[in-house]
Structure formats: C-alpha cells, structure tokens
Amino acid sequence: MKTESKLIGAGLLTAIAASLCCITPVLALLAGTSGLASSFSWLEPFRPYFIGLTIIVLGFAWYQKLKPKKQIDCNCETEEKSKFIQSKMFLGIVTAFAIVMLAFPYYSHVFFSKADKEIITVDKSNRQKVEFSISGMTCASCEEHVNHEINKLPGIISSNTSFEKGKATVDFDNSKTNISKIEKAINTTGYSVTDKKEN
Questions:
Q1: Which one of 67, 70, 147, 185 has the lowest number of neighbouring Cβ atoms within 10 Å?
Q2: pLDDT tens string 132-146
Q3: Count of C-beta atoms within a 10 Å radius of residue 197
Q4: Partners of 198 in beta bridges
Q5: Domains in the chain: how many in total?
Q6: Angle between helices 47-66 and 88-102 (to 10 degrees)
Q7: Same domain, 170 and 104
C-alpha cells in the first residue's frame, strides 16, 4: 500500500512539473508579480520526459490497483476496508488531475483576460510597427502573458506574439507610446527582449 501511495505522489509531481513552465505565467499574473513568469521556463525541454514518466507511473499504479489479488484460503477475518487514499476513486481523481495538468498549455489562454481595446483613429504618420525578438518563451501561455502586458499600454493598435518564433510584432501609435516603453513592458514579464527591428 505504501508503494501505491508513492506511485500516486510521483505521478502527481511529474504531471505538475510537466506543466509548471506554463502554469507560472498564469499564477504570476493572478498574483500581480509578472516578473516571476519565466522562472520555470528551463523545465520546458524536459516536458516530454515528465509526460512519459507521469503516464508510466500512473499506469503502473493502475496495474497494481486492478491486478487480481491472490486468494488465501484461511479462516481469518476478511480484509479491513482500505483507506480513501488507497482507493480506486482516489487514484481516479489523481489521474484526472494529472490529465488536467498535462493539458494545461492547450487551454491556459483562457486565464488571460481579453482587454476590450477601444477603437482609435491613428494618423498614418504616427503609426509604427516594431518586431521584438524575445528569449525565454516556451508555450502559448507565455504569448498571452506578453500580449497582456503590451496591451496595457496606451496607443497599442495590435500585438501578435509567437513563442515558436520567439517574436512579438507590435503595431502602435507613436504619439501615445514608444518602443522603449513597449520593451520595458515585455521585460516586466520575466522574458527578455534581445533585439528589435522596425518594419
């Protein structure tokens, strides 16, 4: 029984570790400490291993739970009822939680509020577009975090961030904000602007 508890605990830990790099930006945003967002981005390369380990550990826990127990023919009392933490229901709850954690990067964007941007008329001479190269982004949650911080600034027309390309393209009114303010907003997320180029 102790082995089962250890397996369940290990399965939970590996599931959380697999998505920690994507959970941190959401937690940082909710806590108002956006600079912590990139703290666990170093875990991203290990994500496939954590996912595999979670599946193996929980699979083995289910195997242990479902395999037929050897019947001992004796006149002893029947086995006492197992604790909830050792039940199939608890293992099922843990498995469901692990699935939710592993899938987190695919639905994390729902935690970032979409700010209703007011429609602004911009004089063509004030319109400017800049592409920022950003290091440290690892998933869609990072993209949403960067866009969220950029869109807080006045005069932002559009912001499009891609973690795969490591870039953010920002269209803005340079009479209301400037490149250095946008760069500063990106850097507050914990990810770093490494280069910028005007389009």
A1: 70
A2: 999 988 877 788 889
A3: 11
A4: 130
A5: 2
A6: 160
A7: no
